[in-house]
Design goal:
Length: 173
């Protein structure tokens, strides 16, 4: 990351490329079955699959001045507005209605993601317009978004552990 552009759009493109590489890697691991629940196997790779990239990202951010300058050059309202993609949480609900995802995960994760995605442009606008309550609204929105993500991950793991522990719920698709 030797290049820091004055145009924030180019910086967003670099970070987007990094995130796309992570997405391709995690999708490949998923495709080959790394995250598949297995009977008798209590260790789940989902937690480390989320925690390890996060920890590496924080360490690289803290130690690489170019990367931290790059990330810090992106306007906050862009980072907030970018979260509009989370409206795709409706896919969790659609998969639940088709019987492909358990309701314990899909309903909470889907509704939470939709709410975060729909409110992202509003929170971004409040920050960009420098409204007196904009920063407070952005903090509240951010806390809700992080809480939703943590809840979705934990509720996604719970049915897998139930499957692995031979509880009543055994449907995994």
């Amino acid at each position: 990351m030797a290049y820091i552009y004055k145009d924030p759009g180019k910086n967003v493109a670099w970070i987007g490329a990094i995130l796309l590489a992570w997405l391709c890697g995690i999708t490949t691991l998923s495709y080959v079955g790394v995250f598949q629940a297995r009977e008798g196997w209590l260790f789940q790779a989902v937690g480390p699959g989320i925690a390890i990239p996060f920890i590496i990202g924080v360490l690289v951010y803290r130690t690489n001045k170019s990367l931290s300058t790059l990330v810090n050059s992106i306007p906050v309202q862009w980072l907030i507005g970018l979260q509009v993609y989370r409206v795709v949480g409706f896919l969790f609900l659609a998969l639940y209605w088709r019987g492909a995802l358990p309701g314990e995960f899909a309903i909470d994760a889907g509704i939470g993601d939709i709410l975060v995605g729909v409110t992202a442009p509003v929170a971004a606008w409040m920050v960009a317009a420098k409204k007196p309550y904009g920063i407070a609204a952005a903090y509240i929105w951010n806390i809700f978004g992080i809480a939703d993500m943590l809840w979705a991950v934990s509720s996604g793991l719970e049915p897998r552990l139930a499957y692995c522990s031979h509880w009543r719920w055994t449907r995994l698709t």
